[in-house]
Design goal:
mainly alpha
């Protein structure tokens, strides 16, 4: 119980910062839908912006950032801050060299290939890619700096720095792209430059935080040729690099398959993915980040039983938050897309295509979220290989299922394949963790999951009926006509779920309610 409360308390600050970032991200996507739409231009931008994000997930927030947290945590625990700073400096120097090379290897071929491409959406993506690609260097360095600060139990301010990307893109959309509907290529250039400026600003903020923490990287001969640090991070990160590379190959495969479906398919996956990852980003990333940092310190001191208690406490609280969110998205996903995005260039066709993908993605929300905590059971003990092997297997299966379903379900098949393999990934990892660490509360966690699904379904039925009954009723002249039905249905769904959770004496309901009440009273 003490571990549960500690993780929840640490997570709330990070969740608050992440919530602000996600809200701004949602505003950004609303404006993107209004000024760019859900067709060819959006598909080109989504594809171009995928490239730097691909390397961010592999080298920044992905394998390298994940390996860095247990490495720095163990070094701080056993060797002190000076040694940790030297190791971090070495990683920053060599990573910068690698990222600069990657940027050149991606940007130059794009420039060379573009004149020979005739398909318009591919041509626009190739024009934007060289401009936005340098962001790869910045965002990866930002990712590992954030991981370092997290390992030192600094969560809130590093997360606040992530607001800058959304601020710059919102400014670009409002002040430039709104008048560029007839200049799609220039619009892509403006968005790319905004991304680069946000990266520079965020690097400045994180540099200041690193200096305050006494961990600002130093450039010297001893840090450049710190062979032990290079070997350690290589040993820890290599399995993750393989796994994350495979995952990003899967993302590229998904986008390529979607490109073969229609002009709207990539954009539909993008908008539905953004809406699905709003709750995951607020809760799962926060729980996973805090859990990994704390669990790494427990593993370093040999307290594996306490580590498992913390892990499953985090997972149960995460399921309590995400299972009802999944049910809500399944029932009201289309209404949310309509309310948030349907305006300007985002028409009825874009709405229908996005709703199809969102529906099948929604089933996977608990699995997507739980993975952030499940893998911490391995990463905290410096076991990077096992999650990679399981991930590669699931990724291959995901591609096979996506190709099998694309003709029948189009982008919905891609979303369903992703949800199925996310559950499978969790089940395999938990089974392997139990074999290695012994007894774990899997049955009680499974019972909780089933309970939450049932009460979420019970809450969804009357809420769905109420929404249909009130649909079309106006609520003041300045607001969208369906907002009243959605607000009433949301309140009813939340009220029924909460009452049932307390009636069934679900412990997580009391923990979450108590912590939220205390935070509310403090403010």
């Amino acid at each position: 119980m003490a571990s549960d409360r500690g993780v929840f308390k640490s997570t709330m600050g990070l969740s608050g910062a992440t919530f602000l970032s996600r809200v701004l991200g949602l505003v950004r996507e609303i404006l993107t839908a209004q000024f760019i739409g859900g067709g060819m231009l959006m598909s080109a931008w989504a594809l171009a912006f995928t490239l730097p994000n691909l390397f961010r997930r592999i080298l920044g927030e992905g394998a390298l950032g994940t390996a860095l947290i247990p490495m720095i945590s163990h070094t701080l625990e056993k060797e002190g801050q000076d040694s940790a700073r030297r190791k971090f400096s070495t990683i920053v120097i060599w990573l910068t060299f690698l990222l600069a090379l990657i940027t050149v290897l991606v940007a130059v071929p794009a420039l060379l290939i573009e004149p020979y491409v005739t398909t318009e959406r591919w041509k626009m993506a190739l024009l934007a890619a060289p401009v936005v690609m340098p962001y790869c260097i910045m965002i990866c360095l930002i990712g590992i700096a954030t991981s370092l600060l997290n390992s030192m139990k600094q969560f809130f301010l590093p997360a606040m720095a992530s607001l800058l990307l959304n601020v710059f893109l919102i400014g670009a959309l409002l002040f430039f792209c709104s008048g560029m509907r007839d200049e799609p290529v220039n619009c892509l250039y403006v968005l790319s430059v905004a991304v680069l400026l946000s990266g520079l600003a965020e690097m400045g903020v994180l540099g200041w935080l690193l200096k305050k923490a006494g961990m600002l990287p130093e450039l010297s001969r001893r840090t450049l040729w710190n062979a032990p640090a290079i070997r350690e991070i290589w040993h820890l990160a290599l399995p993750g690099l393989i796994g994350m590379s495979a995952l990003q190959v899967s993302v590229i495969c998904d986008r390529t398959i979607a490109m073969a479906i229609s002009n709207h398919a990539v954009a539909a996956l993008y908008y539905s993915d953004r809406l699905i990852y709003l709750p995951i980003g607020i809760f799962a990333v926060a729980f996973g980040t805090v859990s990994l940092s704390l669990m790494s310190r427990l593993a370093a001191s040999g307290r594996l039983k306490t580590m498992l208690i913390m892990m499953f406490g985090s997972m149960r609280q995460l399921l309590f938050l995400t299972v009802p969110l999944a049910a809500y998205m399944i029932c009201f996903g289309r209404e949310l897309l309509d309310l948030l995005f349907r305006r300007g260039a985002f028409d009825a066709v874009a709405l229908n295509e996005s709703a199809m993908a969102l529906y099948w993605y929604a089933f996977g929300i608990p699995a997507f979220a739980a993975t952030k905590v499940t893998v911490s059971g391995f990463y905290s003990r410096k076991d990077m290989k096992t999650p990679v092997l399981v991930s590669v297997f699931c990724i291959v299966l995901n591609v096979i299922i996506s190709i099998s379903l694309m003709d029948v379900m189009r982008q919905g098949g891609i979303a369903l394949a992703t949800s199925i393999t996310a559950y499978l990934n969790n089940f395999i990892l938990l089974y392997l963790l139990r074999k290695r660490l012994g007894r774990m509360p899997l049955k009680s966690t499974g019972r909780l999951f089933i309970q939450l699904m049932l009460i979420s379904a019970v809450a969804a039925v009357p809420a769905r009926y109420l929404c249909s009954m009130l649909e079309g009723i106006g609520f003041f002249a300045v607001l969208p006509k369906n907002i009243l039905s959605l607000i009433c249905a949301t309140v009813l769904f939340g009220a029924i779920f909460t009452v049932l959770a307390f009636l069934l004496r679900i412990r997580e309901a009391r923990i979450v309610a108590r912590k939220l009440l205390r935070r509310f009273l403090k403010t």
